[in-house]
Amino acid sequence: MNGARALLDTLVGNGVNVCFANPGTSEMHFVAALDTVGGMRGVLTLFEGVATGAADGYARIAGTPAAVLLHLGPGLGNGLANLHNARRAHTPMVVVVGDHATYHKKFDAPLESDIDAVAGSVSGWVHRTKRPGDVAADTVAALDAARRGVVSTLILPADVSWSDGATSAEREATVTFGGGRDDGFTLDDGAVRAAASALRSGERTVLLVGGDATRAPGLAAAVRIGEATGATVLCETFPARLERGAGVPAIERLAYFAEAAAEQLAGAQHLVLAGATSPVSFFAYPGKPSDLVPDGCAVHMLASHRGAAAALEHLADELAPGSTATVASLARPDLPTGDLTAFAAAAVIGVLLPEGAIVVDESNTAGVGVAAATAGAPAHDVLTLTGGAIGYGIPAAVGAAIAAPDRPVVSLQADGSALYTISALWTQARENLDVTTVIFDNGAYDILRIELQRVGATDGHTPGPKAQELLDLGSPAMDFVRIGEGLGVPGRRVRTAEELAAALADAFAEPGPHLIDAVVPSLLS
Amino acid sequence: MNGARALLDTLVGNGVNVCFANPGTSEMHFVAALDTVGGMRGVLTLFEGVATGAADGYARIAGTPAAVLLHLGPGLGNGLANLHNARRAHTPMVVVVGDHATYHKKFDAPLESDIDAVAGSVSGWVHRTKRPGDVAADTVAALDAARRGVVSTLILPADVSWSDGATSAEREATVTFGGGRDDGFTLDDGAVRAAASALRSGERTVLLVGGDATRAPGLAAAVRIGEATGATVLCETFPARLERGAGVPAIERLAYFAEAAAEQLAGAQHLVLAGATSPVSFFAYPGKPSDLVPDGCAVHMLASHRGAAAALEHLADELAPGSTATVASLARPDLPTGDLTAFAAAAVIGVLLPEGAIVVDESNTAGVGVAAATAGAPAHDVLTLTGGAIGYGIPAAVGAAIAAPDRPVVSLQADGSALYTISALWTQARENLDVTTVIFDNGAYDILRIELQRVGATDGHTPGPKAQELLDLGSPAMDFVRIGEGLGVPGRRVRTAEELAAALADAFAEPGPHLIDAVVPSLLS
After folding, report:
1. pTM value surpassing 0.95
2. What is the predicted ipTM?
3. Closest residue in chain A to residue B392, using alpha carbons only
């Protein structure tokens, strides 16, 4: 068989059965192989950033990796921002980048570029397959690497793809994904003892939870520890997948703005990291510390992003044997009325969020009220913008919906970020995915209006007209309903809480994608 | 002054007065400086790929570089594909990538990534500014490098941007852009002699023209040489900027498909390269040569991409002293009638193309008839997809229109490629640019349907349903009129030649951006 078939066969044989693709000429044999090798679903996206974001959303929900098929260096470049987010989320992913034929590269054809250098910036594993006979083993190696929670990038030259001499994998990848005790992570006894000692010290301790501990088992263990020891339990600012809502142990997230995060951490003498990294300011600000760990606070690394849930469960059994974590109660906000604001929109979402929803949150500043408003909604998952590279939400909703076709996906999307990868709406329509996208439409890069002041760029003065113009999205105003309809997703514009409630209820009642353009004022207005 | 102001001041002082921007927090001091340093026009784009493509289109028309402002590694990644095209076009460009503050990088904050590695893949010059006092000199160095026809990338840490201690440039950059004799390029006398000898040999010679020789002076010299010596004069397949139409010396372009290109070159015993690279197949195909130079053909490098026009003029004066090049006559096609096809659409464009138009051509397969149909139109420039990375056209039209506000820009755009950077329409509306976008809407990645066969991926059989699905854009059908309207550009859908003619006439008559969704059948149907 040729290399393309061996690649597909090995992927399918190891449980990878979705491939988000934006192929080109150098990938045509892979495309053709989809019809000869069964078991792989090819999902077309209109831009590579949609493919990579979708694969990230898919893997966060499915727990198994999707494949991504990209075309040469420029295709990889287009997918890079969402690979960056996936890297920060420790998402397992296998990225296949088709390259020119091995003998063609020396001619420096127009699309030739340094794929390896670009791939290296986001991938935990990069390999260039040299012969058809190596395809299966290289694919297994890519999957084994992905298991560690990295983006694996396999560069597949066109002639390796089209030439015969390949075989399917003789051995299967050791891929197992998931969370909890059974993952076989080796506990670091010393780290557990140190964390236990800090938590027993009676000194103010913060337990910062992240990685694989932000799902119910890890959260339950963390809350048990907090309830038994008095430690403050916080979740990392941007968890890859946070389980929350009624019936799930609830923990507050570390704030995005450094000033607020510093308040949450103030006075801590011990900081125990369970799957989270040590907290730092998202950006630097003149005269303000980057490191958010309070002076004199001892940092104890309990576990890295994988194995954190298992370590917390072990620690909870030691510190709070037999205890049960308090869980959030079902408590929805009251339905607001009148003109829509960011907070009113959040409340409406809190009132109506369906059971078992997957919330993809790229609502940025306009979504400031969503976490509080949905804390008592029925249990749901939240996927967040782990790497800060905007343009993640609409693609990730594609992947989440494909991973969990029976769950409603609610995609909360800031207007500015939406335009990065707006064509993902088309894939939602094409695949008839049950995604409800709410655009928080405030007509501005509101976060940057805030940041312009916070970094002191205008010395406390009102920004000048040129600066304001670069942060404004209102001239001309975008019409997301028309954009959505042009891409095959029906939409509705809403300006009041009642209209949003009606639009959400209708969208949740009818399968398939919907878009709601929720016009809200800027937080600064 | 702070680093941001010194950067702007130095750019403006050296004639760079447009900056295409998609800023973030780390660039806020640059944004604020736009109001304190006069002379720089900031143009907001909704995606970095729009900013880089616009800067490419701008510089190709203006002859001077634009600046681009990008946000950290992911912003650079989003702009990478169009930087790849700019690299292949030898476009002078200064890319400023804001980075975290120097002291912040060690904390590996969420947006931290290897900017240098990614920038290196597309830039002829990359530098990371270390101190505010270095900003002005580094900016001059970036401009000097850009003069060589490269993408210069200046990485500007946020604290260098916001800290005082910078001054304006003490010396100006040696930047001079343009073409023709006065550029001061040193002629390679040996190369000129070798080329002259080949052209005088009486053996079949092809003169392949590219680089700065695809504008009127270089073309005239090349045509004079061809007319005097009998050499076949061809233009590189994807010129950065080709002048053509009535009154301009006309030369045929080397074909995209290798089979057709091989026919154009068949029998050549000498190939003289004037600003073009030696012809190679765009992609490799099983069993077919990558190198398109015929066996036994001697290749003579007359000049590289810059200085080619000057070298040709020198050579023409030697080989054809006192001669004048034949130029194309004004000759428009007849206006077709009835159902629109790709060729009918091309003819309508040929009938109506305005004097002095700038044609940005990303029409790909559907635009196959455009070159012939517009050969006798009034003189115009054509910008092409030099690097093969799609998503170039709509952004490049933005830049071209800003560079030449008095010239009509005609953006010929394939449907599949359009979705890569569709938000560029919004910037066209925001800046009220005189751009008429014609979407060749055939509902498919038609080029890939062709390539799937050409690479032999289906062994001559009809592609299977999964392969066909990955090349289809018709399910759901996109409505570009709605998409355009949602982004602020009025549009019209046309299905007949008459409708296209009416829509084009209206668009050309009314200033500002317009979109025409031209529904055409697939070339394969």
Report:
1. yes
2. 0.96
3. A74
